## 1
Amino acid sequence: MPPVEEFEIEKKSALIGLKSPLSRIKIPIVPVLGVLLIAAFLFSFTIGRYSIPLPQLLQIIWGKTFGLAKSWPVTVETVLFNVRMPRILCAVMVGAALAGSGASYQGIFKNPMVSPDILGASAGAGFGASLAILLSFNIIGIELMSFCFGIGAVLLTYILSSIVGRHSNAVLLLVLTGMVVTSLFNAFTSIVKYVADPNNKLPEITFWLMGGLSSITPREVWMILFPFIIGVVPLVLLRWKLNVLSFGEEEAKALGLNTRRVRYVIIIASTLLTSSAVAIAGMVGWVGLIIPHLARLVAGPNYKRLLPASLLIGATFLLLVDDVARTLFTMEIPLGILTAIIGAPFFLYLLLKGRHGWE
């Protein structure tokens, strides 16, 4: 981004009450967050029911990387690469996906209260998974149904908003129709739970809707990797246009930006991220809402830094929460419960701390 445009972003950010990161932070935030993610990544390998010391972990990684002779137990290698590695990688991608899509939605809708499920992706994915469980699909079928219904819910939102009004406020119509579609799919999910076998299907549906990574295998890593890459790359490349969109529709058009095209590219990319995350991990709330706020506090409102910071903080946050979920008690805690327990008070704190930031 040219220096003049970046200066304008910083100046306008100050005018709306958000402190400029250039005047407040003198350290490279994104590299620091990257180092923290790597530290959390390595730490997550060492804890669990089967404790693995960090020196042994580094020895195994070094030996596997350079093809050295095995000097460690086969059991340890199996735990690391068949159990913990897929789960940790999925936690990183799910956290980054939810946080990145949440930050992008907040930018295009110019509303800090927006979360990744604003257009119905999470509700649609939840219904798809519930229906698949009711129909006794295997795990692959459940994940594919969840992903497809998440995409379909957002597509339905777009179609309804186009039918309702072509010359009205596009952003407002998307939000309103998203609320309708979310309510509709939540009702469908309730119907599925109502007719499900209370001794078999209903507990499985309920547990899935609470979110978790307990059933992750290497297959899930590949299933989320491709939609994650397809979704993240456009957001990162277009993040400077999110700055322009946040200034308002008229000013963005005056700067020569095709707001309609950019908005829908970002919505498609964010929907891919949200649907794939929900398909793999279930309904994990609050991540897409609170992490962009936290990233805004440490990196400022400029999406050149805000989006990468959201991705890194989201990945680190969900990775650490998953560590707590699988080690705090003998029985694993669903992720959705922990993120709500942590997210709700923290979000209240952010509102109290920055209540003048969006006035």
## 2
Amino acid sequence: MFIENALRYDARVHVLDPDPHCPCAGIAQRFVQGSFADRDTVLDFIREADIVGIEIEHVSVEALEQARAMGKRVIPDPAVLRTIQDKGAQKLFYREHGIPTAPFTLVEDRAMLLASPPPLPAFLKSRTGGYDGRGVMPLRGPQDLQRAFDAPGVVEHQVDIALELAVLVVRDDAGNTLAYDPVEMVFDARYNLVDHLRAPARVEASTARGARQLAMRVAEAFAAPGLYAVELFLTKGGDLLVNETAPRAHNSGHHTIEACASSQFDQLLRLYLGLPLGDVGLRAHAAMVNLVGEGGRGEPVLKGLDDITHMPGAYVHLYGKRETRDGRKMGHVTLLAEDHRALDQGIAVTRVHGRVVPATNTTPTPTKT
């Protein structure tokens, strides 16, 4: 999606990815198969690059630090990425900067958790490596403590959540900062990932204003240019708490491709090239519905494409992944409408008819992702 936007600027995009069949392999100006977690691989890949960016947090920070030393423009700043890669360091960062977040404690292993049991219920989050809901374990009672993973983690006390929100913030070199309208995220309990989101969020104007202000505080605390996806909890008492931040294009901003004059991908390219920040205003009410694999593994087939594309204001994005499996994000549908009621209708149609399932009579070849 970044490359699609970059083509409008005649920007040359090179991609490093461990999967030779990743969706962008066929459209990148240059594609290299390799691990973005390996320092030497990354350094060799970016040697001829002017600008270095990321699509996922699990990238060698040491390589990005060296890229900075070589005079290359790197976004996000390696220091920002180092903090965000470690959920414990990220939570401490919020505390040190007076940014409200759910109460938490840090543990080194299961033994430490058992020695000092936290107030329950709570959530145990892996400090590193978690993604799309993986690495998060609910601790509902004492029996769950015995089954906790034996690694460094963050124990986050459960709070009464009314809604989960997200705000995209873009910050340039001069410190100019813009925030998109807060989005409301609705989660799929089966896979612990976003089922759909809607913008603007259905909250009071004062809450929306507070969410934008809090997200901008996060970006200002990091004090570096970049795109920041700030995930928030709105408690039943009306408080806003920062859950976590992603320093990159994010699932909560995919709707901006059609819903805003300047999408999150356009903002990233503007940042890379030192161009003025784009317009973040919403053109219409918008929803983004994730298309998630179901029914096992195999070559993906989207059911209900005719029903979805029949709706006015519906935009289908299939990611081109070669294999579907249960819970894997395979694409999304963006819906534009005049109000939330019309969005509800579009979401219902997409949920009923839009299903990504494995094709019959296929023998899938597993790919590393």
## 3
Amino acid sequence: MIDTFDLIVKLTAAFGPSGQETEISRVISDLARPYADEISSDTLGNLIVHRKGSGPKLMFATHMDSIGLVVTYFEEDGTLRFGKLGGISPKEIINAPIRFSNGVMGAVKVHGKADEDKLSLDDLYLDIGAGSRGEAQSMVRLGDTAVYATVSMRAGNRIISPYLDNRVSCAVLLKALERLKKTEYDLYVVFTVQEELGLRGAKTAAYGIDPDFAIAVDVTGAYDYPGAPKAGSAVLGGGAAIKVMDSSVICHSAMVEKMSDLARQQSIKAQQDVLTRGGTDAGAIHQSRLGVVTGGISIPCRHSHTPTSIADLSDVESCIKLVTAFTENK
């Protein structure tokens, strides 16, 4: 498999907003195939990579969908009104370049009379270079979805990229599958759909697999930049963030303790992840059926859901090591 940075670039470049994960699912399936006994998809579209084992069922879940912009109206002048898929702040997407799955490019712009201190999506529009409603309708359709078209770049040991939430976690699990030598677990690595719309894929995947243990791998907020709110404990460069809680889950204490012990024993750089907002697939998984013993491993990330989110590659490496260590130590 390619190195970690190039892998993240490949994954972030794949189209896959919530509900339209076909392309990113195909990319991940091709990358995971050499390390799987079975690969399947369920009705909702979750990609399930299975490595057979005789022990308890262990499920890793990481969502492969991204946020997106969906066309809702064509203006007479050829500009587009749009809604959102997932959490998007109007202020953070002004002037962002965007692309549709058919290759049409454009940019997010703000209405000239809008108050930029009180922006809503109604104040924004997409410019795709069309000069009339008819021309715009010949280029895209009502309901088509666009994603950020910003490029990924490396700045020292950090990566600046769109959609680190959550393609960076997909990279973590793919690299862990590549490195995994042995496991007694009956292992399911699930790349879930529609997490950004309410953990929808994780809910059905957990019900179908019925795991004994589960770990959600996702980004977590790194609020260590100037003027940041104090909404979380994780920092860039602090290592793998072992989830304690967020607004969707209080992780099982046995999972927190085991991951913390493994990190100490194997000299894996780690930190605790205590988050007062947001959630992960763990929120749906731990409530499945009669309940699942669930934990979380997080990659600290600044400015998630913006066109230029930031993560540290040393944290990514620590997360790969922790996932591998957990899987190899029943």
